[in-house]
Specification:
By secondary structure, the protein is an alpha+beta fold. It has a domain of about 70 residues. Helix content is about 55%, strand content about 20%. The chain is built from 5 helices and 5 strands, in the order H-H-H-E-E-E-H-E-H-E. The strands form 2 sheets. Strands 1-5-4 form a 3-stranded antiparallel beta sheet. Strands 2-3 form a two-stranded antiparallel sheet. The longest helix has about 55 residues.
C-alpha cells in the first residue's frame, strides 16, 4: 500500500468515527491534566453565622457569660495562690527548724552554758509589760549557775474561782501572768 492510499482511507472516516476519536482525545488529555494537578485540600466547613442576641434578654445572657468567666478565672487564680502559699509555708517551716537546730548547736558549743527548764513567775514592770530577767536568773541560780536569760515563756489568764464557777473564763478580778519555762544559764 502506498501512502496515498492510506491517506485516502483515513480521510474517508465517517463523521461518527471522527466525533468518537475527538471525544477520546479530549478524555485522554483531560485525564493527563488532572494527573498533573496537585491534590486539592478539602474545603473547610464554614461556621454557622452567630445569631446576635439583641434586646434585654440578650444583654442579660452576655452579662451572665462575663460573670461566669470572671468567677472561673478568680477560682483558678485562687487555687494557684493556695498551692503557692502551701509551698511557701513548708519552706518557712523547714527554715525555722533548720535555724532552731543551728541555734541549739551554737549554744551547746558555748562553754559553761546550758538550757534549763523551770517555772518562775515574771514580775510586772512599770510600763505593765512582764520583766522576766529576774525570773530567768532565779531558775538558773536554783540549778547552780550564776546568771541566765529567758528562752521560753508561758502566759496564763489567772481568775478568781467565782469567775470560773459562773461559767466565764475572763472577767472582774482576772489578770495575766507570765512565767519563764526555759532559760539559758551560764
Amino acid at each position: 500500500m502506498n501512502s496515498k492510499a492510506i491517506f485516502q482511507h483515513s480521510s474517508r472516516m465517517s463523521p461518527a468515527r471522527t466525533a468518537l476519536a475527538g471525544a477520546i482525545l479530549l478524555l485522554i488529555s483531560g485525564l493527563a491534566a488532572v494527573a498533573q494537578e496537585p491534590p486539592r485540600a478539602p474545603p473547610r466547613p464554614v461556621p454557622p453565622a452567630a445569631a446576635e442576641d439583641v434586646g434585654f434578654f440578650g444583654a442579660i445572657g452576655r452579662w451572665f457569660d462575663r460573670q461566669t468567666d470572671a468567677i472561673r478565672s478568680t477560682f483558678s487564680n485562687a487555687g494557684d495562690k493556695v498551692e503557692d502559699l502551701g509551698h511557701e509555708a513548708s519552706v518557712a517551716a523547714r527554715t525555722t527548724v533548720d535555724n532552731a537546730k543551728n541555734v541549739g548547736d551554737a549554744v551547746t558549743r558555748i562553754p559553761g552554758t546550758r538550757v534549763v527548764a523551770g517555772h518562775e513567775r515574771c514580775k510586772v514592770a512599770a510600763n505593765g509589760a512582764p520583766d522576766c530577767l529576774v525570773a530567768a536568773g532565779a531558775i538558773c541560780k536554783t540549778k547552780g549557775f550564776a546568771s541566765g536569760k529567758s528562752l521560753d515563756m508561758t502566759t496564763a489568764e489567772i481568775c478568781p474561782p467565782k469567775v470560773y464557777l459562773s461559767g466565764r473564763s475572763t472577767g472582774e478580778g482576772c489578770h495575766t501572768e507570765t512565767f519563764v519555762s526555759r532559760a539559758l544559764c551560764q
